[in-house]
Amino acid sequence: MRTSSTIHWITAVSCLALAGTAAADKPATPAGSKPVLGDGAAVGQAAPDFTLTDIAGNEHRLSDYKGKTVVLEWFNPDCPFVKKHHEKNKTMQATSGKYASDDFVWLAVNSGAAGKQGSGVDRNKKAVEDYGIAYPVLLDEAGQVGRMYGAKTTPHMYVIDAKGTLVYKGAIDDNSSPGTLGETNYVANCLATIADGGHPEPMETKSYGCSVKYAAPAGANVP
């Protein structure tokens, strides 16, 4: 005769076995899933170093710019929100031009995968000409640098001070519409504060724009 404790033990083992079977049957990555991005680079911490090549074939290593203020702009020339600040308005050109000096670097980074919207050397060369971009556009087709920084949108802005510390990340301004400029240019304010020897506030805002067109991670089941 089975005791009550024996029955409870058998029931528990059966439940564990069923749970294990259900977990084994559940796919690890659903088909069509998007790459998952973490928070990326942390404000107040050293900005992650990287090396990328621009559309002219020149190599850029972030650590080579230590001692300078560096702005990183995530870029996709065909994104309506990028066009808002490059075509309809000249936000990026005006802001970068105002602070242009030997102690200042502005770099656009395109983390779009090969074949996706706004990717490739030729498309970005044309964008540089059409938009009148005076600073380098770096290609990150593998998406390694974009994921390292946690870049989610185009544009997504990052400001790094002369010590190599990330002091701002987020939106370019405070209006997330695809056509209307905001009243506050966060990046311009950040750069002005740095120039005056102060600490930027806010240090982080929510970026807006098109999603970065990342390549699927190796092994992901994405059609």
Secondary structure: elements and pairs:
Elements lengths: L3 H22 L25 E4 L4 E3 L7 E6 L5 H9 L2 H8 L5 E7 L10 H11 L5 E3 L4 H6 L3 E2 L2 E4 L5 E5 L15 H10 L14 E2 L12
Parallel strand pairs: 3-4, 4-5
Antiparallel strand pairs: 1-2, 1-5, 3-7, 6-9, 7-8
Number of helices: 6
| Strands side by side in the biggest sheet | 2-1-5-4-3-7-8
Number of strands: 9
Supply the CATH class.
Answer: Alpha Beta
CATH domain topology? Glutaredoxin
N→C terminal distance: 57 Å
Quick structural overview:
With 223 residues, this protein is α+β, with helices and mostly antiparallel strands.
Can you walk through the features of this model?
- It is a single chain.
- This protein is of the alpha+beta class and 223 residues long.
- It has a single domain, classed as Glutaredoxin (3-Layer(aba) Sandwich).
- Helices cover 30% and strands 16% of the residues.
- The protein has 6 helices and 9 strands; from the N terminus they run H-E-E-E-H-H-E-H-E-H-E-E-E-H-E.
- It has helices at residues 4-25, 80-88, 91-98, 121-131, 144-149, 186-195, and strands spanning 51-54, 59-61, 69-74, 104-110, 137-139, 153-154, 157-160, 166-170, 210-211.
- Strands 2-1-5-4-3-7-8 form a 7-stranded mixed beta sheet, with helices on one face. A two-stranded antiparallel sheet has the order 6-9.
- The chain is globular and about 45 Å long.
- It starts with a helix and ends in a 12-residue tail after the last strand.
- The model is unreliable at 1-36 (pLDDT under 50).
